[in-house]
Amino acid sequence: MTQYEVSTLKKGLLVLELVKKSQGITLKKITDELMLNKSTAFRLLATLEEMDYIYKLQNQFYINHKMSCESFERRSSMDWTSLQTIHQIAKQLQMSTYVGKMDGTDLVMAQVLHEPFLASADEEVGNRSKLHQSALGKVILANLQEEQLESLLEKMSLERVTKNTCQDSQLFRYHLKAIREVGYAFDDEERIVGIRCIALPIFRDGEVIAALAIAAPASQITRSNTKRIVSSLKTGSHTLTMEIEKISVK
């Protein structure tokens, strides 16, 4: 130890660096890696979490990227790819997982994960489609405030991309009401032939900001497993909301 070295500060910085490098790490892993006793590691983590340098999700700690931004909304689309909950959902369900955001009458992909669910499919992030053509877009529309929804519907043209895409504006309105009531949207080959999709809204401060979805070949999403998938997505959406709140600038 040098003359001016502060032992506790050094340990805290080592913990911070390890959390940053690991992209999700448990208390036990930290104690093992840095050879710290459990109580010391716990106090350091609690302090770093209280100061918003890190955050805890389930039993793992993650770096808080808010330190280098002014607000969560101003961060680039790559910030969605850093949210750990999305990876956890993809690994749990073993299906391609998506996050989509609304931009005018378009849906923009903000995160895409395919098997083995280790890294974002960056070539698909930023892809656009029309809101009415997928479960992602429909569940966002269904959860908008009435005035905003009406304004958008007036601008939308329900062009078809497959034979299953809805083109009847009145029927589409009824469909959105049903989605809002059940809490999720189902896409039965409406955008891509052979692919089904289930999507749930992502909320922040009571307002829908995006949607979370899984997609798979039609044979893998059936009546018998829809309830299980929806249940997992509901839990994931709730956890994702909590993760967003933790890393947002207060």
The helicity comes to 40-55%
Overall number of strands = 8
Q: N-to-C terminal Cα separation, in Å?
A: 37 Å
**In what order do the strands lie side by side in the largest sheet?**
5-4-3-8-7-6
* Oligomer kind: single chain
> How many whole angstroms does the radius of gyration measure?
21 Å
Roughly what fraction of the amino acids lie in strands? 15-25%
Major sheet summary line: 6 strands, antiparallel
Order of secondary-structure elements: HHHEEHHEEEHHHEEEH
Which structural class is indicated by helix and strand composition? Answer: alpha+beta
Q: What's the average pLDDT?
A: 84
Given as residue ranges, the uncertain stretches (5+ residues, pLDDT < 50) are 67-78
What does this structure look like?
The radius of gyration is 21 Å and the shape is elongated. The protein has helices spanning 7-22, 27-34, 38-50, 78-81, 84-93, 135-142, 146-155, 169-182, 223-247; strands spanning 54-57, 60-63, 96-103, 106-113, 128-130, 185-188, 195-204, 207-217. By secondary structure, the protein is of the alpha+beta class. Helix 2 crosses helix 3, helix 5 (84-93) runs antiparallel to helix 9 and helix 6 (135-142) packs across helix 8. The longest helix has 25 residues, at 223-247. It is 43% helix and 21% strand. A hairpin with a 2-residue loop joins strand 3 and strand 4. The strands form two sheets. Strands 5-4-3-8-7-6 form a six-stranded antiparallel beta sheet, with helices on both faces. It has a two-stranded antiparallel sheet with strand order 1-2. The chain contains nine helices and eight strands. Mean pLDDT is 84; it is low at 67-78.
